[in-house]
Amino acid sequence: MALRDILDKQATTIEYVLHTHGLRASVDGGRLSPRLAHFHVVLPQGVRPTVMSPLVDEIAEALGVVSCRLAPGDDPGVYL
């Protein structure tokens, strides 16, 4: 499986977890660093990034990774 396919599947998984909690956010790209994949999550207007905090462990479990963390983005949204 190509790296692009893996990243697309992970983005879909993130969106699925958020949607199951009624949060209609979308993953709009991201970037790779040597050790991490950063996904840009675009939140609906008026939704604060802090609503994602309780979901971080569930997202990590769904992705099959040890942990995830939130980081503020330059524009509306957050990096996961």
Walkthrough of the structure:
By secondary structure, this protein is an alpha+beta fold. It contains two helices and four strands, in the order αββαββ. It has a four-stranded antiparallel sheet with strand order 1-2-4-3, with helices on one face. Strand 1 (26-32) and strand 2 (37-42) form a beta hairpin. Helix 1 packs antiparallel against helix 2.
For the sheet with most strands, the description reads: 4 strands, antiparallel
The separation of the N and C termini measures 23 Å
Q: What string gives the helices and strands in order? A: HEEHEE
Poorly predicted parts: none
Please state the average pLDDT score: 87
Rg from alpha-carbon coordinates:
12 Å
Helix- and strand-based class? alpha+beta
Residue fraction in strands: 15-25%
Characterize this entry briefly.
By secondary structure, this protein is α+β, with helices and mostly antiparallel strands. 32% of the residues lie in helices and 21% in strands. It has a four-stranded antiparallel β-sheet, with helices on one face.
